[in-house]
Write a structure and sequence with these properties.
307 residues; mainly alpha; two-stranded antiparallel sheet; 46% helix
Amino acid sequence: MSEVKEVMVAMAKKKSASLTARLARWRIWVQGTFLFVWLAPMLRIHTVCSPVFHCYSCPLATFACPIGVLANFSALHLFPFLAVGTLLVAGTLLGGFVCGWICPFGLFQDLLGRIPTPKFTMPSWTGYFRFAVLGLLVLAIPYWFGEGHPLFFCRLCPAGALEAAYPNTVALAMAGEPLVWPTITKTTVFVIFLLFALFTWRPWCTAFCPLGAIYSLCNSFSFVFIRVHQEECGDCGLCKSLCRYGEGPRQRANDLRCIRCLDCTKCRSVTVSSVLSRSPSAGVAEEGDQRSEPMAISISNRTEEDY
């Protein structure tokens, strides 16, 4: 078996990477580019809602946070038409691609994940916690008790601590004004989040993010999605070993925790596709592109170039 495996690996190395697999290597640069869109101090457009998770109280924030808008409008007993419309458009078009490619808080977690520490995979059922956060902390508690409640989402949000609370405290210190420290609760949540982010991939995105809960529901019907070509699949388990979350793609890669990072497209049977594709074989790939043969790869064997 080991000799067969070595032959398969040798054959795979002779094959060129697919278009999407090569694109995946540039993901962090795409995330960094979008960071300048969400954090542009010269453009303070807080009447417009962005499709990503960030804090509008950040001194550099360009747009309003969709989750902050949902929570505050819930406290006011109003329906946030603009925020809901923004999320519906982004979710219908891209689904989890928003989380994997353009979210600034996702980029922060990806950078923390590059720190060479032992990584563990969280159980798949932890993804349902996001719906509890969305239903209780973002919608129910603000609606029933208002924004003054200690469990009001924005009072706990780790993105708010990173992007607003601590930067504002530093700004006050530099200006010589009385300091306003983040609450103990928010600080505790942020510290726990940092510890988890050092030892597992994107813990906030996959287990607690209410925005991720919304986009995860869109994974099953979004315009652009990841397709598994069953006619090419050899059940080798490559796509699952490539997945940082231990799930791997399914027929449409619609797992609730999939952020569509495209790492799994290094397998020849997985491609990016759209609802306009006429057949399962009409994924996004270069003409004449040769996809790599199945080979045994694990997260621990990745090189820096793979990220």
